[in-house]
Amino acid sequence: MIQSLFDGILVGAILSLGAIGLTMMMHILRFANFSHAELLTVGAYVALVFDAVFSALVPAFATKWGSLSLTAALAVATLLSIAITGATAVAADRLIFKRLRENAGPLTMVFASFGVALVMRNVISLLFGLQTMHYSNDIAFAMVISLDPLLLIKPDQFFVLILALTAMAALHLVMTRTPLGFALRAISENPPLAQANGINLKRMVTITWMIGGGLAALAGVFYALTNQISPIMGRDLVLSLFAATIVGGIGSVPGAFIGGFVVGLASSLALLVIPSGYNPALPFMIILITLYFRPFGLFGEER
Question: Residue 147 — φ and ψ, nearest 5°?
């Protein structure tokens, strides 16, 4: 039970990172972007490429940090991945979603996002193949925290959990204490009124895509660091990300934070009572239950 709780908290922290970016996009841009989950895959593979490049160019960067799988090369590669994945999200908006936003409705954008997701997934499969990969091929040994009850934690898992919580706390401060955060919240609530008060709508939309893509990249790297890298990462996580967003309430950053942990814990604890083959259906059940009893989520507001 204790081991499942920790595993659920770890998965929940990663899902929260991805869900926060998704809920911001859904609230500000007013459409469900199913290609968002593929940005996690893009981020993981971009970090993989630059990790290999920096390790080859500067061998000292390939040295592990203590018992962690993390190296200086991967740390720098992760920062580049955040920037590049954010730019990829902006490019998708400029090339596809911007035109549809101006000439079509939200439903058309939803269908387009399915197409964008398929294109991203298949391009990654074409470039890297279908096999799974790892940032490090060395065996990572877990630390025995407790024998009764049994609790095993890998150093990478603990590091990822702390870093994910730190990133979410930093974003919360930006959204609640800075002019940028105030502007983003104003645009999400009332775009015409925000523009009338001098807020640049186009710039805020670009920043939203950058933040969403950057958080997705960070979530993708964390997921890959504690699991494995695969071209179907996004496909496997998309329902969980939407479940976290809907549970928390669309547009609520704290809600996405809580929703991610709810979904992560539910998925992990469910393995104690149901076969693992049924686990992928759990996020869908969570979405249905939330929509039935509380359509606007735990922290969402009725519109």
Answer: -95, -30
Local confidence pLDDT in tens for the 303 residues of the chain: 777 888 888 888 999 989 988 988 888 888 889 999 999 999 999 999 999 999 999 888 888 887 777 889 999 999 999 999 999 999 999 999 988 888 877 788 889 999 999 999 999 999 998 899 888 776 666 666 666 676 777 888 888 889 999 988 898 898 888 998 888 888 877 778 888 888 888 888 899 999 999 999 999 999 998 888 999 999 989 999 999 999 888 878 888 889 999 998 888 888 878 877 777 788 888 888 888 888 888 876 655
Provide the β-strand partners of residue 144: 152
In contact, 267 and 284? CB cutoff 8 Å = no
Nearest residue to 199 (alpha-carbon basis) of 222, 217, 181: 181
**Any residues with CB less than 8 A from the CB of 212 and at least 6 apart, and which?**
21, 22, 24, 25, 36, 39, 86, 89
SS3 label, residue 271: coil
Q: Is residue 298 part of a domain?
A: no
Tally of domains within the chain: 1
Whichever domain contains 108, its CATH number is 1.10.3470
pTM of the model: 0.90
Report if residue 223 sits inside a domain. yes
* 53 within domain boundaries: yes
Residue 44 belongs to a domain: yes
Cα end-to-end span (Å), the chain: 40
Contacts of 1 (CB under 8 A, 6+ apart): 149, 269, 272
The parent domain of residue 57 ranges over 2-293
